[in-house]
Amino acid sequence: MKNYVLLFALAVALTGVQAADLRGGVVPLARLGEKGQEKAATAQTVHVAAWRNERVNTAYCLWNGAKEALKGVRVSVGDFVSAHGARMPASAAQVQRVRDLASAGDAFADGSSVDLAETECATLWVTLAVPKATEPDVYRGMVTLTPGTGKPLVFTLEVDVGYDVLPDVSAWKVAPELLAMLGKSETKTWGTSSPAETAFLGVFAQARGVAALQQRVQGYPQVTSAMRAAILRDAVENCEKIRLLEESHRATWRLGATLKWKDGELAAANAAAYAKFVEAVESAIEWMVCPGYMHNRKIVCEERQWGAEVGYLEPVTEMHLVQHPKPNFDKPGRPLYVVLHSSGHNAVNALRCTASPDNHDIYLAPDDFFALYLDCKTAPDDWWYGINKKPGFEISACERRMLKTIEEVVVKYGIDRERIYLCGNSMGGSGCLGFGIRNGDIFAAVKGNVPALVQHACDRMGWDMKADADVPGVDWASLPDPPLIIDHTAPNDMRWSEGREHMFRMMTARRYPYIAYWADHKHCNKNSIITAANDLYLTFDWTSLRKSDLLPAFTDASSNTPCPWPDHRDAKGAGQWNAFFRWGKGNDTPEKLSLDLYLADLTSHHFVVPARVTADVTLRRVKTFKVQPGDVVMWTFGDRSGKVTVGADARITIPRLEITRTAQTLVVRH
User: Fold this and answer.
1) Of 614, 3, 522, 466, which Cα lies nearest the Cα of 249?
2) Strands (E) located in 542-586
3) Cα Dmax for the chain
4) What secondary structure letter does DSSP report for 173?
5) First vs last Cα of the chain: how many Å apart?
């Protein structure tokens, strides 16, 4: 929704009123010629967000505060550079001076300049065409205005370039379902003719209300009230955005026509917003046409309100989806696959992703599982506490709400409590690490794909990332034994993988069960791309683990790839920690512990698969074999044997075991 903010700021500027700072819109009026202008101006930053291959616009509003005309005002734009060294050329930005919405623009060519009359207000319109090959990152560039005499005026333009790539305008199509809902009958294709633009504006004009959509939703009795409310809520939200967008679009269209923009290009500035609207409508129609089923699996949408009982200060209405197993498996005693969506999704469109292959594959539950798609969009301050909030060690309202929802689903559908698994992508990946590692009494295993930061997990377990040590006074050792954590990321995943070394150090220091994979595929959610970059990624059957089974934690393995964080994030190729280890079910009695350990016999294009590996092995989730810190126990493993002292955390660690592809039994006795 970039342009409607922008045009409002333009209107303020053209009336000569000094504007306040507008987020994502426009720098305040800068008074050229006034004392202290350079200090005030350099503090101002415009923030814009863009897809790759998208064209976005913003503006700088200038006021000549001098008592005389300013001659020869020149503008220059520097290269856009990220904190990681990525670069977008200055040529991506074009600057034009606009006197008002009806007048022609004056392009600032290299070396050209314009004059500003006494007390004149003018607007510099900046169009940024983000190249398709731009690395996703946050870029900062400088826009410098230099009068003929006097000090230059410098503004910062910050551009957050996402991973999505906007298709070329010629490839755009209006979905037939959308046109049908709005009373159209034919499919329109974007082109270079004015009628295509007119059709585009007409779609927005007719989308200003939701009466037609509401009528259609209510015509399907199979749609639950909770689902109907969610559909309409999204539609209302998007239609309001479209209403504002349409108003700005018409004004911008007049300006664009004056500036002689090519037909079809103008809409590109707002393509992201339009695509989100179409997705929302298509999602609604998909649920109406085929309500309650996907992959021949029944889907139930449930909704309830949470409040003080979980710690919310204001009531929060939450929606979640339960997907049943395929018919042959739809019975009590099945496992549960819990999904935390990313920041760009909610529960509904996270499940929608699974309708097509190679689209957020981690969201797709096995055929014989129940699946629970939790939602945090209806409580936007939650965000799984993976990005926007980090509550530290204390349990949050969001976490209480998730735990209660899982428990209700377990009871209602007769879920096997030994087989509850948690996964997530991006923000949901961060959320599942922090939520899952803390609740080992609930989950058998946890898997996060490209988690958006690891501070959530470190905070939840009382680990100080700055000191790389336990937070003083935090009783982390009293928490339930963590489940196996599977963590998959990429060193070149820009800011989202930063700090990964702290996660590795915590998991090693605490001797937690941990498997990590990485490769240079950035913030990817497609298994085809991920496995092409690291072919070990899907080789471990994490959903076969049971919560009460003995669980070995391997640390300081000789087969581990050197950690590329923080100093070698430009390293190419795949890496892993503990990815070759396998184990049997194990035996836990008052007299002894026993567990088969071995290496997987794998084929890999990225790794030399080892025949033997040395590692420390810590036995976790021990329940029947009782020990106290300081006890001495005896162990045997193949032809080796020894004694070890039980650690301060009451865990048994056998140092430097040599593990091979032939299974050997580790036995521990009093």
Assistant:
1) 3
2) 551-555, 575-577, 581-583
3) 95
4) B
5) 67
